[in-house]
């Protein structure tokens, strides 16, 4: 039996594996998927969870058992991918070695708060939060509900990040949330970003900057985050600029998985060296890359992972 091995049962891995069970002759091919997580998360829901909006209130509104979105024709292997040997065409998982004929890496990216001085242990505690994963998004419900005055700072620590529009969407949702609560006039909302404006692309930047201005949201551009001071409640840029906060909603640096770098497949930041025209790995034979883990010049988004899976 030949095997296509898919690493990761997130958006990209699930779509490609399910499609392959329809495209391949399953008398000859096995489609196997490896993932270490208990749950598959619909990550866009994390944006609404902190505000308890549109029915996104609890874990069950975003999470499914990891196996559930996968076709019953897929063999699922639960475990962490520890090493990828592209010469031997073998992947080491917890307690299992899996050989492959073709490999698809769809391991996504991870939050790396430890990359920012002062952020690592402080994230999710006190006044420093994020909505970029489900546990942290849930933990932000209470501080947001409690906030009646002060400075809410939404900060993008570094680029690239998955779903680049999410931080400004969060700022707009916060504006609406506090207006409905009747406390907007006592809360200053600031978007602090490494981009040159409210968003990356010039046209969108122009429109979103105007919308932000109309909503009374301050935008601090070209801010490269160097450190977070949890006690002093200040973020500081490499240029020495400081922005104080009462509640900080931060998007920590996004990096690729360690196993990609450790297996010699990475670009230095954990993203796979990927040919943008073919989605083949640039160095390894029979290895394809989809989703956030690819180092191609496009947004890291579920929609992109979906189109790549269909390619
Ligand atoms: C707040 C937020 C809002 C978003 N909104 C949108 C939106 O509106 N539209 C949109 O298109 N996209 C959105 N996205 C982005 C979208 O969710 C991701 O781009 C998409 O999930 C990427 O799919 P992926 O398959 O590459 O990675 P993921 O879906 O993250 O899946 C990666 C999988 O790999 C597994 N994994 C990682 N490392 C290992 C390992 N070593 N061993 C075993 N398993 C491992 C993980 O457990 C995970 O299941 C949003 C993201 C966030 C955080």
What features would you highlight for this structure?
FAD/NAD(P)-binding domain; binds flavin-adenine dinucleotide; 5-stranded parallel beta sheet; 2 domains; alpha/beta; 7 helices; elongated
Measured by DSSP, the beta-strand proportion falls in 25-35%
Taking the sheet with the most strands, its summary is: 5 strands, parallel
Strand order across the largest sheet: 5-2-1-9-20
Number of domains: 2
| Residue-averaged pLDDT | 97
Individual helix count? 7
Structural class comes to alpha/beta
What is the highest CATH level, the class of the largest domain?
Answer: Alpha Beta
Principal-axes shape call? elongated
What name is given to the CATH topology of the largest domain?
Answer: FAD/NAD(P)-binding domain
Question: How far do the termini sit from each other?
Answer: 24 Å
Low-confidence blocks of residues: none
How big is the Rg?
21 Å
The SSE string, one letter per element, is EHEEEEEEEEEEHHEHEHEEEEEEHEH
Number of strands: 20
CATH architecture of the largest domain, by name, is 3-Layer(bba) Sandwich
**Helicity level:** 10-25%
Name of the CATH superfamily of the largest domain: FAD/NAD(P)-binding domain
**What bound compounds does this protein have?**
flavin-adenine dinucleotide
């Amino acid at each position: 039996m030949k095997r296509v091995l898919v690493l990761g049962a997130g958006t990209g891995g699930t779509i490609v594996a399910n499609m392959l069970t329809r495209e391949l002759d399953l008398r000859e091919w096995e489609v196997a998927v490896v993932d270490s997580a208990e749950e598959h998360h619909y990550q866009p829901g994390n944006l609404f969870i902190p505000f308890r909006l549109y029915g996104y209130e609890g874990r069950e509104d975003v999470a499914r058992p990891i196996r559930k979105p996968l076709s019953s024709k897929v063999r699922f292997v639960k475990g962490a991918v520890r090493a990828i040997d592209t010469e031997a065409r073998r992947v080491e998982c917890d307690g299992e070695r899996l050989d492959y004929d073709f490999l698809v890496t769809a391991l996504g990216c991870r939050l790396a708060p430890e990359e920012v001085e002062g952020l690592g242990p402080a994230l999710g505690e006190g006044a420093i939060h994020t909505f970029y994963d489900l546990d942290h998004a849930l933990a932000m419900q209470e501080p947001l509900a409690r906030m009646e005055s002060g400075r809410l700072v939404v900060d993008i620590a570094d680029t690239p990040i998955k779903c680049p529009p999410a931080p400004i969407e969060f700022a707009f949702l916060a504006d609406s949330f506090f207006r409905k609560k009747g406390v907007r006039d006592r809360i200053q909302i600031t978007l602090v970003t490494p981009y040159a404006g409210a968003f990356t692309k010039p046209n969108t930047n122009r429109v979103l900057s105007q919308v932000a201005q109309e909503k009374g949201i301050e935008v601090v551009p070209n801010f490269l985050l160097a450190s977070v001071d949890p006690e002093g409640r200040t973020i500081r840029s490499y240029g020495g600029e400081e922005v104080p906060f009462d509640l900080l909603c931060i998007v920590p640096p996004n990096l690729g998985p360690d196993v990609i770098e450790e297996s010699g497949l990475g670009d230095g930041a954990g993203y796979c060296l990927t040919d943008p025209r073919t989605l083949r790995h640039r160095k390894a034979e029979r290895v394809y890359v989809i989703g956030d883990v690819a180092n191609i010049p496009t947004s890291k988004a579920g929609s992109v992972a979906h189109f790549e899976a269909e390619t």
